[in-house]
Amino acid sequence: MRSTALKGGSVPCSRGMIGVQMARKPPANPPNSFDVQVFLKSAGVSARMVRFASGTLVFSQGAQANSVFYVQEGGATLSVLSSAGKEAVVAMLGPGDFFGEGCLAGQTLRMGTAKAVMPTMLLRIPKRDMLWLLHNHSEFSDRFIAHMLTRNIRIEEDLVDQLFNSSEKRLARTLLLLARYGREDTSQRLLPKLSQETLAEMVGTTRSRVNFFMNKFRKLGLIEYNGGGLKVNSSLLSVVLHD
User: Fold this and answer.
1) What is the rounded CA–CA span in Å between residue 169 and residue 187?
2) Chunked in runs of 10, what are the mean pLDDT values of the chain (243 residues)?
3) How is domain 36-161 classified at the CATH fold level?
4) pTM for this structure?
């Protein structure tokens, strides 16, 4: 189902590939050369910059859907809550990702909940401005379409990960995703320290299991606690690849 190439942000696993494909400009251009904030300003669109502390809700399921968000810094999760009260994380988001795009397809209410998992900076683009940009600016439209296609691939990969992989592998992959492992446009793998409760929600396991595996990863030198941050070493990939 997945290619094994790490270039471009793939994180393989023993069951095919658990990859991370992030939206970006077409390959002909250098990575991270498209600055959304600068582009919006030049196009006359006044997107609002919003900051969220870790654990803060961006929007809740059932809230009015009237804008699209773009992640400038940090990270967030998208989750859904069933009528029986069961919650599931359906997507992890990082710099370069759009979300909340359901309003462009006629959704008047949010179908899920978005929450910052670390200090996060977002651009909030009103629906009317987003539609105007997509119709009138091909460069912006190309980037957004690329994001939607790769986002769909990631959601499929996340489902495979949940169905077939152990909680240990899911945690390792989650950390690699949050650290943007394999991204061409980043060398930074230091994360703000995430609570084990947050990681448990993202992985779909218990806090005690997360605590056990985080201690194991630390003892093996796969992760390091550095002051208030968490360093994810590339050697953590061995957990994902191990059968």
Assistant:
1) 23
2) 37 44 35 72 86 94 95 90 83 88 94 92 94 92 88 80 86 86 60 81 89 95 84 90 75
3) Jelly Rolls (2.60.120)
4) 0.71
